Amino acid sequence: MPEGNVTIFVCVACRRTRADLPEGYDQPGLSFAEALRERIARDGGTLPVEPVDCLAVCNRPCTVALAADGKWTYLIGDLDTDAHIDEVVGAAASFAASTNGIVPWKERPASFRKGVVARVPPLPVRQQG
């Protein structure tokens, strides 16, 4: 898996309503981040998975961001631990292999096509001097 400087950020603050739990909610990002780490490690990868307190997409848990220096950042919502871990890992590989972070539509898994919240341009390179 070409990893480069790619990081997967996972929102761990979002709450999903769950009537079957005493608290009335769960925080799917917590289990999603752990499942991603386990899946990447199982394949011998070193891709970092970073929990973050909020990606401001609270109505679409679970949400992740794929980011790397010099590349567009993807923000994807409505992910599920049981259904989308492999898709996120595959999308991260496509993202890492791209020159600018833009993953062709055909290479995006269904969850990314449906769940894209935003694609944010990279910061411009600033010349010091």
Describe this entry's structure for a reader:
The structure is a single chain. This protein is α+β, with helices and mostly antiparallel strands and 129 residues long. 29% of the residues lie in helices and 20% in strands. It has three helices and seven strands; from the N terminus they run E-E-E-H-E-E-E-H-H-E. It has helices at residues 28-42, 81-97, 110-115, and strands at 7-11, 16-17, 25-26, 49-52, 64-67, 73-76, 116-120. The strands form two sheets. A five-stranded mixed sheet has the order 4-1-5-6-7. Strands 2-3 form a two-stranded antiparallel ribbon. A hairpin with a 7-residue loop joins strand 2 and strand 3 (25-26). Helix 1 crosses helix 2. The longest helix has 17 residues, at 81-97. The chain is globular and about 55 Å long. The termini are far apart. The model has no long low-confidence stretch (mean pLDDT 90).
Write a brief caption for the model.
The chain is α+β, with helices and mostly antiparallel strands and 129 residues long. It has three helices and seven strands; from the N terminus they run βββαβββααβ. The model has no long low-confidence stretch (mean pLDDT 90).
